[in-house]
Amino acid sequence: MNILVSFSILILSLVAIGGTQAQNIDKTTVKKVDLEKYMGKWYEIARYDHSFERDLVGVTATYSLLPNNRIRVVNEGYKHTLNGSLKSAVGKAKVPDMNEPGKLKVSFFLWFYSDYYILELAEDYSYALIGSSSDNYLWILSRTPVLPEVTLKQILDKAQKRGYDTEKLIFVKQQ
User: What's the CA gap between 165 and 169, in Å, rounded?
Assistant: First the structure.
């Protein structure tokens, strides 16, 4: 019985700590997104580590606008090297509330959706900082395989000011 009580206290403590950390992250999304401008190919410059992209390089996300503000999503990357086997995932996204155009939902499996938050977006749509309702996800996307060093530093500074740990970012090798 003591083991069950100890385990319960441990779980509750972890939940409390996780909840506290999440409050320190500013997940405010952009107020305006022109979906047509957002469509097209984006290069993944950096990301937090997660199992569904582990060991991938040359990662891109390509978005295509469908009727009713639906979006086709194609994520591609190469395993280990730029000459490695191509891994691809096709999904869908939507903007559930057009009053919050920076908060999208994305799905790669049936009706299971995850949050896709556009936290920062360049005026010319040349880069985007993407997060989620969870502070375990962060991406830096660019229209080009490489960002100018000054621009990258500005994005990293913005992410840090929001409370993200930019030391956890993995910088993705691109072609």
Answer: 8
Report whether 78 contacts 57 (CB < 8 A): yes
Average pLDDT over residues 152-161: 98
pLDDT band at 13 (very low <50, low <70, confident <90, very high): very low
In the chain, domain spans: 34-171
Angle at 13 between CA 12 and CA 18, to 5 degrees: 100
pLDDT in tens, 84-103: 999 999 999 999 999 999 99
Please enumerate in sequence order all residues whose Cβ is within 8 A of that of 5, keeping only pairs 6 or more positions apart, or say none: none
**Other C-beta atoms within 10 Å of 137: how many?**
17
- Which CATH number applies to 34-171? 2.40.128.20
Scanning the structure block, which residue is given the tokens 């030391």?
167
